[in-house]
Amino acid sequence: MSDFLFVSAALFALGVYGVLTRRSAILIFMSVELMLGAANLALVAFARAYGSLEAQTVGLLVIALAAAEVAVGLGLVVAVFRMRSSTAVDDLSELRG
Amino acid sequence: MSAFDFIATVLLLFTGFIAVRSQNAVHAALGLAANFVVLGTVYMSLDARFLGWVQIIVYAGAIMVLFIFVVMLLFAARAEVGVDPLPWLKNWGAAVAAVFFATLTYALSAAKAPLAGTTAAALLGGGTAKAVGSVLWGTWLYAVLLVAALLLVATVAAVVLVHPDQGQSRAEREASRGGKA
Q1: In 3D, which of A32, A55, A35, A33 has the Cα closest to residue A45?
Q2: pLDDT in tens, A4-32
């Protein structure tokens, strides 16, 4: 099996670490992108192992979905910044009891 | 493991580490862009040539530019924003990520290659645009159409979200415009 599957696992774990420790919404978002890339790498590595073009096709769709996600996500970050002048996720505490 | 695989692995982990640890958001974004470029070359080495180029063009080219643009727009280059209410939680984050990695590695270590490498490579046809395109516009046609619609909706949503007049009714907008005039 391809060694890149383990690299993909390591990159995904790095992304998890980033999501858990970052406090700026933009940087959390970048870590999510790292995880998406890692998942895509796993898809491509499995495609190579199984000789499956379908897996590569799904990888292509994942990239298109990531583009849509980034457009909406960064739009949300900008909209929140307009209201609060901050990108820190801890500042969004309006619903705190 | 060939020399290319080794260098690519080291580069991927190093740039990924920069992306999650750098205290400067621009450095983190550049680390992530480098990560995506290396990822594209890895795709090409794994017989996914078209996907590799799409990865470089869309991720490293378009998505990262969007990120850097927003970092610039919001003056958000400093990674440490606000106050950290739970500073001791950072080590737990590292622990959770390590456990996650161990679990994934354990799950993957059981996997065995079902085909000989050369057989699988022949089935992929090099992963060129021709090979992927016939699958994409065949079995996956409706998925492609749905993703196209989603991209359109996302573009409109992004424009609406950053529009300055959002949340106001038409009457309020016209009133404020009349006030200015």
Answers
A1: A55
A2: 999 999 999 999 999 999 889 999 999 99
